[in-house]
User: What shape does this take?
Amino acid sequence: MSQQVNYDDVEVGTELPVVSYPVTRLSLVKYCGASGDFNVIHWNERIAKAVGLPDVIAHGMFTMAQAGRFVTDWAGDRGTVTEFGVRFSAMVVVPDDDKGATIEVSGTVEEKLPDRKVALALTARWADAKVLTRARAVVKLP
Amino acid sequence: MAVNRDYVGRTFPASEPYEVSRVKIADFAAAIGDSNPVYTDRAAAQAAGHADVIAPPTFAIVVSIVGSGAAIADPGLGLNYAMVVHGEQRFEYSRPITAGDVLTAQATITDIKDAGRNVMLTTSTQIRTVDGEHVCTALSTLVERGGAG
Assistant: This one.
């Protein structure tokens, strides 16, 4: 359990260090089942390639979920996410091997808002591509 | 087949009630690799001020799809799902989704427009309890690659 961050201690401009999140074919199969999104491009290499993709790609929502982990781990158990938005700017291609791909998430404290809310600007990268842009979360802190 | 612009502004019926179970939340948390006990351990969730285990923020998509899925799959809309990728997603929460919630999702198609060779379809889905309490608004943009015509 991480230490609880308090609104009064948060400073605008603070950089939140990068965290790496792995994604494998198994991650995608599990995410298909848990989310109900069985779009073939997330599990079927044959069809993914037939529709012009380089290979199977991760659900955008899987990548967003990793950014969500980054936010909630920072905000602590007493923090509550009140807004969370992203633009999916590039695909995360997931090869059929044991290593898969790695999504790297980092963030910056962008703004302190009224009502003990803090806005975080987030960055998510895969293989040097920005896979999320305009990624921003607002959390209410103790 | 082109995406049918006549669907802009259409609000679909609210979904059947979706009962949020602890098992489903735990499943979702495991699938995204998040081991935070507030998603699996009722005592930990209560210690953090919740009535029961809560769901990770992006779990809202699961409930949202119950409503927007009907819109997206409507044959009259003409969306080619194999060519669809997710463009944007945004959530506005009144509170975390919590185990025991009985929720409905009601989707409105707010925009359909061409962007180069692609078509962008935007939906706004209201997630409420069956008693009418607002829990989350989910705003989604889907992109049909090569769908412009």
Remarks:
- The longest strand of chain A covers residues 101-113.
- Strands of chain A lie at 15-23, 80-88, 101-113, 117-126, 129-140.
- The CA atoms of residues 10 and 109 of chain A lie 8 Å apart.
